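Title: Prediction job returns without error message
Component: structure pipeline
Severity: low
Priority: P3
Assignee: unassigned

Description:
Job completed but the reporter wants confirmation the result is attached to the right record. Sequence as submitted:
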Amino acid sequence: MGEFRTAPYLSAAERGFGFSLSQTHSKAIQFTWRYEAYWVMLWALGFVAKLARPDSQCDVARAVSILRGLGHDKFMSQAKLRPPAEVLDAADLIYRYHWAVREYHQLRGQEPPAKLNADVVMERHHALNWLIGYGNGDWDSVDTST
């Protein structure tokens, strides 16, 4: 975290996870899924050209290599926030995907439609809602209701 100077920007939950000497397996899995939210941020900042359908996991190796390859200063100077309309459109679409996942998977006990990955959908919904300020929650308490 030192080279990238991220410590001041971590949420309380992220600091608790990142600086703890012992973690539960379930916490580690929970925070591993945050790569999907990070992928959305990379897209929103112009480092990823397109958000593919949320039917498979992001390219974690590429996500890591983007920041690692550029370093803090180049990453910050090259980041270009997408137009608000694009981010809002993505937030609207992920809301609809998340609604479908909850309707079919959680309420009906069926597989999510169109091979959507429920975990990918949820993490992207979290990130996009945070980006658009939905509910004015901080990162650890973003509302992803449908």
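Comment from assignee: result matches the submitted record. The two ends are 34 Å apart (CA to CA).
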